[in-house]
Design brief:
Layout: E1 9-15, H1 19-30, E2 38-44, H2 50-54, E3 61-65, H3 69-83, E4 88-93, E5 97-98, H4 102-110, E6 116-122, H5 131-135, E7 141-143, E8 150-155, H6 156-162, H7 174-184, E9 189-198, H8 212-225, H9 233-253, H10 257-272, H11 276-281, H12 289-302
Parallel strand pairs: 1-2, 1-4, 2-3, 6-9
Antiparallel strand pairs: 4-8, 5-9, 6-8, 7-9
């Protein structure tokens, strides 16, 4: 592997109407002990002055687009950084705060031969998201997906092999599908204890949640795309079904009937929507043989 100080790294930050958090995130990125070679910011149609502020930041590569959710944002961001030919792509939301040595610690593990390296996430109270997992081992690197798109470090080789996130997910579940795809393609995924990234835990408030459609639809998308390599498809479907029923029940208990209807609508779309175009766009390994061979030929030609 190329030493960490010889490779190029681009950060990808996706933002939508959170200018204050974005400014804080970018300050911590700029303060990394291992400086970034480029910072790519995807502005998902913000209307809170983010666009105007970004245009004053001369050290950023900025892409303004309509709001395509986190999925569309990371699709654009990873694709942009990949086409700019950076060796590593460091992905995060605008509300993430990496410690100053986070990137350096991730790269130190990446140069040992790993292509997906995730940080140790701490919530707003300073409690580790994966505290129990690290307590079970004496090692500082565990085989675990960590927090997708929460300061994960992806190698160029990995992106070349598996493609980009599926933009049609819009929000919720896109990171699950991307991790499934990466693991099923044979890449080991690891989380690093001393690479610290601060990010608030994601919880569902059933009283106010407005994302029932995407939560249910995308969960079914994940099941349909999942090939069952590292886990039984039946077990995976059971997990997706449990999440769906829990959301519907929680919404009913809190009289959020609009989201019950949205969840049922998402259930229908989850099973009937065609996914082939998105699969092809993202180099999914479940493609038809002819298309898969074309992708392999393209990969072989690019890798020399």
């Amino acid at each position: 592997m190329i030493p960490a100080n010889k490779v190029s790294v681009a950060a990808v930050v996706v933002t939508y109407n959170r200018r204050v958090l974005l400014e804080q995130c970018l300050r911590t990125i700029r303060a990394q002990t291992r400086p970034l070679d480029q910072v790519v910011v995807i502005n998902n149609g913000s209307t809170d002055g983010t666009e105007e502020w970004l245009e004053t930041q001369n050290d950023l590569f900025i892409v303004h687009q309509a709001n395509e959710g986190g999925a569309g944002g990371f699709y654009t961001g990873i694709k942009t950084a990949y086409e700019m030919e950076y060796d590593w792509i460091w992905c995060m939301d605008d509300d993430g705060i990496p410690e100053p040595d986070c990137l350096a610690n991730l790269l130190a593990v990446g140069e040992r031969g790993f292509h997906y390296v995730a940080p140790n996430l701490l919530d707003e109270k300073g409690v580790g998201h994966f505290e129990r997992r690290f307590k079970m081992t004496r090692t500082d690197v565990v085989s675990f997906c960590g927090g997708p798109f929460n300061a994960i470090l992806l190698s160029r080789d990995l992106v070349r092999a598996v493609g980009y996130p599926m933009r049609n997910f819009f929000i919720w579940g896109d990171e699950v599908e991307y991790c499934n795809r990466i693991v099923e393609s044979g890449f080991p995924v690891v989380t690093v204890r001393n690479a610290i990234h601060h990010h608030k835990r994601t919880t569902i408030d059933y009283r106010t949640c407005k994302r029932g459609f995407y939560l249910v639809r995308n969960g079914i998308y994940c099941y349909r795309l999942f090939q069952g390599v590292f886990r039984s498809k039946t077990v995976y479907l059971m997990g997706r079904s449990f999440e769906t029923m829990r959301f519907i029940f929680g919404s009913l208990v809190h009289f959020n009937f609009r989201q019950v209807g949205a969840a049922l609508y998402g259930f229908m779309h989850g099973w009937v929507d065609p996914l082939y175009e998105s699969q092809e766009q993202c180099s999914w390994w479940g493609l038809e043989k002819a298309t898969r061979n074309d992708l392999n030929a393209e990969y072989n030609a690019e890798s020399g």
